[in-house]
Amino acid sequence: MAKRPEPSKEQGVTVRVALPDDERARKAALAVYAFSQGGKLMDAKPLDAKGEVALRVPIGAEGTNLRLLVGPRLEDQDRSVAELMRRGAVERHLRVDRGAERLAIDISVGLDTILCWLRGLCVVRGTVLKRTTLGGQSIDLPVCNATVEVYEVDRFPIILPKLPKLVLDRLRDLILHPVPLPDPIPDPLPGPFPGPFPPGPGPDPAPFQGAAALRRLNPEIAPQMMHSHAEAATALAGLDQAGALRFTARTGSDLDFQRVLLDHELLLRPIFCILFPGFFTKQLVATAHTDDCGHFRTLFFQGCRNHDTPDLYFKVKQRFLWWDIVIYAPTPVPCYTWWNYACGSEVTLVTHHPLARTCPPCEPVVAGDNWVLFTAIGQTSMNAIFGNSQALQGGTTPANRGLTGGGAPFGGALRPQLLFDNSLRETLGVKYYRLFWRRAGTLDWFQMLDDVGRHYTYDGGGGQPVSALYKLGPLSPPEAPVANLFEIPPSLPPQGVWGPVIAPVDYQNGVFDTTLPAPGITYAANGTEIGADQSGKFEIRLELFDTAGAPVDIAALGIRYFVPDVDNLAGTITTVDAAPLGLVDGNAMVVTVHVDNNPTYAEIDAPTIGAASADPCCGVLGFTPGDMVTLPWRAKHKNGFASYSFTTKRVDEVVFSTSGPVGLVGNHSTVQSAQGLMDANLPVGCLPGGCNVAAFASLEYVTAMATDGWGRLQYLDSADFEAFTLSRGGAG
How many other β-carbons are positioned within 10 Å of the β-carbon of residue 346? Predict the structure, then answer.
């Protein structure tokens, strides 16, 4: 019968670490690690104030050989022999027999080694954002509660010696036969690749094809990779200026060629990004977690004697139901590597993944104490609206007050966006607000009473996220002291975190449906206006209330109203006091918007020659040489807030095109030579004047300028088209 192996027992090992008599050494966070000979962690403890550690290690029947390492204190996931040795840990081996008494070992650590552990740390910080588009505007939202993995990418001195001769020969050929690129570089250059990147490594595309793909790189590539598309393309086009590189490529050995390549790393990065991305490998060096603003910060050990700056690649994961999904891991890796990363500098990682969960934007507002910021109508900053902007104050007139800086009116559902200083709720007892609207010059105010809320997410158990809606208003007793109050959003939701952010509802603090007090006119089939024009100036009023529902005296509490002095609300929002702009009325703030919900009108009439018009049955208009054709059309908007485009084509050829503001006249026409329409832009192979009969089509599109603050109101646009035929001498 086989003898059972004796059960393992624990053996005590005391490790005494001799540290230098230096304040920096005593403050360093150090630990002692015990590994088996095979690299399994058996015990680890931080060094105490006396420089001693008592470890307990399991010992089998035959004893073991311990690997004791003294090094910096690491997180659990980093406690490996490989990581500690990479950081320069001091190692000692200790034989432990089964019958041994309690063992002790002394290990000395020099000051230079400890300083290396301290100085060799590299701080990595950044922000993860999700970029979405709404109403034609790009929005960046912070990705919260995500895990960021930081990888160190192989440096070129590691990559180049591993390149096979075939790849070196391909590099030689590319350097010896550079491709000049036009200046300015057209966008995009022609190329054979269906996507932004070619497959690789694989068959070598022609250099011009590689340059074309390089030119079409995603603009979100790390700026350390290339500062612009033009710089990337110049890397290929400028090869002929690298004299030493060209000479060595023509005459040098592979070893000489590799050495010279190292001196041209900036030039090699975009080339390897496109043509040879598969030769790069990466190693995980750190992990971090994003906060509610998408920010992350972590450390990794670079080494104090490593004079090469790190090259970093980032991957982002987020929990979805019960799994972690990758929401950011762009490829090819060398195209999205932050080459020569400066420790402590900020990186911005932008994802477009549809499942990436976001939190509300954490705009840093610069406005002093106890501020209320009337930020925008939709996503149109108040700084871009006449009458509400310091930047536009000098050009504000009674006519353009309330229009955007581009001269566009507002329409549809307007959604004011407000931001509040935390001090209002937390220290001043100001908890509620109300928004009202009225037509300028009238007395009565009407409150905005549409539902307003904010989404938040919490753990529903088992790691499954649950989304809920926090109602801000309208609130009535017992939710609020008086009816129809709206709550200033608290800093934190009842549980979990704010988000996901759903536009536009998570941005709005009220809804003003302008189509009710200012509906647009309509047009009959012949272009006759139906209904009265209700457009004009409207005012929006903001009032504050305390926890008891009483109006707030803003002067007594030191509260001030502000508006942005920047158009871009995605970054830091600097502000200006609203009072000098005339936007404060007692304890309230009042802004103006110009509303116009009128639609456009487009109609093309039949072309004419003198009194004759195109045949209404067949659309044929006869002409003789020298006749002039009148092309009439109508482009209308009640108040001129629109532009038109009118194009006439013969098959695929444009023979006439014009565009411009509609103005207030509405009737437009152009007179063209009939023979000119027949001959204009004839394709190669056609005989001049060879068309006796030609078919034409005219297309008109009238574009409304009105916006709801998120995007242009396309439903107010209109279009028309008409086909006709010109026939020499009469009907065809």
Answer: 10
Lookup: tokens for 70: 């003294």
Token match 């994802």: residue? 351
Give pLDDT, residue 134.
56
> Cα separation of 152 and 155, whole Å?
9
DSSP 8-state secondary structure symbol assigned to residue 251: H
Ramachandran category for residue 396: left, alpha or beta (phi over 0 → left; psi -120 to 50 → alpha): beta
Would you state the structure tokens that stand for residue 671, as one six-digit string? 């007179």
Local structure of residue 48 (DSSP, 8 states): -
Q: Which of 438, 445, 613, 414 is nearest to 511 (CA)?
A: 414
- Helices (H), ranges, 380-513: 422-426
Please tell me the distance from the alpha carbon of residue 263 to that of residue 247, in angstroms, as a whole number.
14
Question: Which amino acid is located at 340 in the chain?
Answer: N
**Tens digit of pLDDT for each residue in 628-649?**
999 999 999 999 999 999 999 9
State yes or no: pLDDT of 218 exceeds 80.
no
pLDDT band at 118 (very low <50, low <70, confident <90, very high): low
Give 272: exposed, middle or buried? Use CB within 10 Å, 0-12, 13-18, 19+: buried
Using CA atoms in the order 593, 594, 597, 598, what is the torsion angle rounded to 10 degrees? -170
pLDDT of residue 700: 94
Using CA atoms, how far apart are residues 649 and 652, in angstroms rounded to an integer?
Answer: 6
Task: Band the pLDDT of 212: cuts 50, 70, 90.
Answer: very low
- Quickly count: other Cβ atoms within 10 Å of residue 599's Cβ: 21
pLDDT in tens, 671-718: 888 888 888 888 877 876 667 888 899 999 999 999 999 999 999 999
Model confidence over 472-488: pLDDT tens digits? 999 999 999 999 999 99
Stated pTM of the model: 0.67
> What is the structure's pLDDT at 211?
41
Contacts of 169 (CB under 8 A, 6+ apart): none
What angle do helix axes 265-275 and 165-176 make, rounded to 10 degrees? 110
Residue 562 gets the label, from left (phi > 0), alpha (psi -120 to 50) or beta, of: beta
Q: In the sheet that 103-108 helps form, which strands lie side by side, from edge to edge?
A: 52-59, 9-18, 103-108
- Rounded to whole angstroms, the Cα distance separating 27 from 562 reads 47
- Cα within 13 Å of Cα(78), Cβ side: 23
What separation in angstroms does the CA of 535 have from each of 379, 410, 435? 22, 10, 21
Strand order through the sheet with 693-704: 620-623, 718-728, 693-704, 642-650, 653-661
**Helices (H), strands (E): how many in the chain?**
13, 44
175 sits in the region (left: phi over 0; alpha: psi -120 to 50; else beta) called: alpha
The four Cα atoms 13, 14, 18, 21 give a dihedral, to 10 degrees, of 150
Task: Name the residue with tokens 């009565």.
Answer: 444
Q: How far apart are CA 72 and CA 132, in angstroms?
A: 42
> Hey, what are 387's tokens?
């009458």
Number of C-beta neighbours around residue 416 at 10 A: 24
| pLDDT for the residue 231 | 45
DSSP structure class, residue 321 = T
Helical ranges in 284-427 per DSSP H = 422-426
Q: Is 292 helix (H, G, I), strand (E, B) or coil?
A: coil
Percentages (nearest 5) of helix, strand, coil residues in the chain: 15, 40, 45
Q: Which residues of 51-90 are buried (b: 16+ CB within 10 A; e: fewer)?
A: bebebebebeeeebebbbbbbbbbeeebbebebbebbbbb
| Residue among 586, 560, 541, 553 at smallest CA distance from 429 | 553
pLDDT at 249 over 90: no
